[in-house]
Amino acid sequence: MHKRGLAFYASIYRKILIQDLKSKMSYRADFIISTFGMIMTNLAGFVTFMILFHNFPTINGWDYHHMLFLYGFSLVALTPVQCFFDNNWNLRFMVQSGDFIKYCFRPVNVFFYFISEVFDVKGLGQLAFGIGTIIYAWIKIGIPVTVFVIAKLLVFLLTASLFMIALMNFAAATCFWIKGSGYVMVIMFRFKDFAKYPSSIFEGIFKIIFTFIIPIAFIAYYPSLVILEPSNVPLLSWISPLYGILFVYLSYRFWMLGVRKYDFTGS
Amino acid sequence: MNPKRLLAITRAGIMESLHFRLGIFVTLFANLIYLVLVYYLWKAIYDSSGTAVVNGMTFTDTMIYLILATALFNFLEMFVVWDMSRSIQSGKIVLDLLKPMRFRKYTFWSYTGNHIVQFVLTFIPTFIVVMIVTKGAIPIGLNLVWFLIATVLALMINYNLEMLVAPICFYTESTWGVNIVKETIVLLLSGASIPLAFFPEKARMIVQYLPFRAVYDIPLSILLEKNGSDTWHGLLSLFAMQIIWLAVLTLAGNLFWNSAVKKVTVNGG
Amino acid sequence: MNEYSGNEAVVMKNVCKDFKVLNRHEGLKGSIKDLFSRDYKTVSAVKDVTLTVNRGEIIGYLGPNGAGKSTTIKMMTGVLEPTSGELLVNGKVPYKNRTENCENIGVVFGQRSQLWWSLPLIESFKLLRDLYMVPEKDYEGMLELYRSLVDIEPILHKPVREMSLGQRTLSDILAAFLHNPAIVFLDEPTIGLDVSMKAKIRELILGLNKEKNTTVILTTHDMGDVDALCKRIVIIDKGTKIYDNDIEHLKNYFGSYRTLKLKLSDDTWEEYLIDEKTTDVMDVIMEKQKEKKIKDVKIDEISTEEVIKKIYEGSAK
């Protein structure tokens, strides 16, 4: 029995990624159309945002530039899930058709093997758009540029991305139990549109739900407060990295439980 | 076309949708959560604005509009483009095209079954909940009949929009890209994500005449008796717009489909 | 690669597998009723199967559709957990040690390619080499062996999606043997292939089995595969093992059966399966002669295909 550690997985991932990118080059039209699609979604999101602010100058005490920062933050936080975990979208079809079984015949982690198959380049356009938005808002708000602040920004962007990854893992894995659960992923992905608004808008029981159970509040709001309000950072912001890791871990276990419980009747 | 056969396909469509029972309940639940999100967002927006009416829309108006738009969106959701690209990539399309009934007709009627299930399971409950919560803010009268007619037209327009986009799959494997462009445009310009009333004046003038509005905005305007639909003149002009777009899209869809199918036959799939 | 030194590749003792399925009702009304129904029934896909497969054997695992063949394979590959009973593959419980089990098995599932769709075959091979941590020397040796058995050069640099079905199947089989596993599961490996490709694939499987002493568990509906490859066959129907013995024995078992072929006056051949214990061949010929003139007569031994058909029919009663 071979031991397969982190170094093994990293090297395999790199190799699959290189091969995947190579083969993607042969689909140039696909790349152009996908990139165009990505630009369109981002533009549409931005237009919606602008229309909202055209009618309402502040939302819950947040002005235009602070909201813009939150918006950019949520876009960047979405990039990892889009680039690295995009194969989750295919899970339902693979499970239904029975093709999923092929991932269970290799001596590597099923989740890893499945996810590694797709690296999605189109997420990079969104990354650029998000970074641009953050920089613009950063300048307008006048946040000081120090190494410390930038380091904090990176750490908390990464934190925020963990929550999106976990949510999509959970949503995708529902297909192991529920036939016709495709909509769960669609709607979960649409939930992210609400990450760009300050989570102080939620009240009562829903504040708890959207913070801890469907942690939309962690996709942008809490992590970004570390940068936006350095003098008044809530405890939840500080613990968000830990909670993010826990959440990803739970989603991974859920996904793997699905694989174990599934009866593979599709074939 | 034999109406009995159409009915059979629709029936099979209904049964197929019901087959995914847990899926239906989960979908209902997910929708509920989504609506809660919409509610809090707009409540905060209106609370911050300081006025009760923005661009002629009160908070209640906006909520009803958005909730019903979401319900309508779910009910009208089709995956023709996805199905089609899968069918093309697997080569199944050749079989689909060989079926005795014309592919597009078959798709339409089997989706109709699905739509009926969705209408009963998502739209009607949502409508009832909205009625209860708003204590009857939606006018009840002839508008319900007009709304149903407008919805059927919207369904057909939506189907034709899908069918206009679907043949692109014959030319490119980039289904994701094609689909996301379509969805984004429809969502934004149809008023499903933000009511058209909030659009800036000039943008609204343009959007008003585009076909996307005919899918969500027109049925909802008629239901809520907005946009002059409470007068005969206004009502008829809204219907006229739907019918004109339906005709144009059907024609364009037909032309595009036929030329795309020709390409398949030439390449042998 | 394999530390297990026992002589049995697979040991199954009283293995059962049950599935819980919703009892569905018919019609539109039934569909609506099902929406709220909690009426489940248990379906036994595999019932009390005991089976030992020895190292280096090629066994044909046969049965009609839905007999429980693929459920058994899925249990052996560690994808499904048996409901009860004992199952050891290479001396280990596959479900509990899935990753480890996968190192020592290779799987080909019919027309479902497991290779990277858009990669040239050689790149898929390299990735598999890394996934299975095959030492460079062994990998080169295996490629050498492949070259001696089939002409792989034309497909080596071709992306899988551009291959013909035959080439794809060939590639999948080669990929399944690449890490020199102790057992290879082949599910319908020749389905949809033309005669010459079928022969090529069978030859390859035999060659690999001989060279590497690999155990092969083959499920198929093609009796040509069985005749060409298997010494022993196991037949399962409705989840129960109904036959497990040598292929020769199988023919003896039905040894009193003959296929009678009659060429009639209009130059058409008619076939009759006759059990000599109960019916006399001459009687049948005489009987037929009264109806039509017989130009030619042939009596053949029963074919494997007909034997299997007989067994399926027997178990259906």
Give the helix tally of chain A.
11
Task: Please tally the β strands of chain C and state the result.
Answer: 12
Strand neighbour order, sheet with most strands of chain C: 5-6-7-3-8-9
What is the typical, i.e. mean, pLDDT of chain A?
A: 87
Distance linking N and C termini of chain C: 47 Å
**What's the CATH H-level superfamily name of the largest domain in chain C?**
P-loop containing nucleotide triphosphate hydrolases
Poorly predicted ranges of chain C (pLDDT <50, ≥5 residues)? none
Give an account of the 3D structure.
The complex is a heterotrimer of chains A (267), B (269) and C (317). Helices cover 70% and strands 0% of the residues of chain A. Chain A is mostly helical. Chain B has helices spanning 3-19, 21-49, 59-76, 80-90, 93-98, 103-133, 142-165, 168-171, 175-189, 201-207, 217-223, 232-267, and strands at 53-54, 57-58. Chain B starts with a helix and ends with a helix. Chain C has 317 residues and is an alpha/beta fold. The model of chain C has no long low-confidence stretch (mean pLDDT 85). In chain C, the strands form 3 sheets. Chain C has a 6-stranded mixed β-sheet, with helices on both faces. In chain C, strands 2-1-4 form a 3-stranded antiparallel β-sheet. Classes of the chains: A mainly alpha (267), B mainly alpha (269), C alpha/beta (317). Chains in contact: A-B, A-C, B-C. At the A-B interface, helix 2, helix 8 and helix 9 of A face helix 2 and helix 9 of B.
Summarize the structure.
The complex is a heterotrimer of chains A (267), B (269) and C (317). Chain A has 267 residues and is mostly helical.
What is this structure's SSE topology?
The complex is a heterotrimer of chains A (267), B (269) and C (317).
Chain A: H1 6-24, H2 28-55, H3 64-84, H4 88-97, H5 110-116, H6 123-141, H7 147-173, H8 182-191, H9 204-213, H10 221-228, H11 235-261
Chain B: H1 3-19, H2 21-49, E1 53-54, E2 57-58, H3 59-76, H4 80-90, H5 93-98, H6 103-133, H7 142-165, H8 168-171, H9 175-189, H10 201-207, H11 217-223, H12 232-267
Antiparallel strand pairs in B: 1-2
Chain C: E1 8-22, H1 27-34, E2 40-54, E3 58-62, H2 69-76, E4 84-89, H3 98-103, E5 105-109, H4 121-131, H5 136-149, H6 153-156, H7 165-177, E6 183-187, H8 195-212, E7 215-219, H9 223-229, E8 232-237, E9 240-246, H10 247-253, E10 257-264, E11 269-275, H11 281-291, E12 294-301, H12 304-316
Parallel strand pairs in C: 3-7, 3-8, 5-6, 6-7
Antiparallel strand pairs in C: 1-2, 1-4, 8-9, 10-11, 10-12
Helix pairs in contact in C: 7-8
